[in-house]
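I am writing to request your help with a piece of structural work I have in hand. Thank you for your consideration; the sequence and its tokens are set out here:
=====
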Amino acid sequence: IVICIAMRFTVLIALCVVVACASCAFANDDFSSWVGKKLIEGKDAAQLHALAGESADVVLETDLPQVHRVIHPGQMVTMDYRPDRVNVSVDETNVVTRVYRG
């Protein structure tokens, strides 16, 4: 019985460490600077960026993390939580209104 309790305690501690490390990996991400900027989506984003040069008021989809999803108004989305995914909510004019992990 003592061995069983010790094993459960060890597994619980290991699980807590894994969860803590997963959340810390993204703690320094700051996507707040994207809010209020226009999101340019699609394959043309890189070409447009090259033509227009650096612009402080746009975010290119190509600059988003590999694992992301853009959420448009009224769009249905799954409720699964993925700590590696960045969700970018936009309004009707494609201006970023919210950025969050999950």
About this structure: The mean pLDDT is 78. Helices lie at 2-24, 44-52.
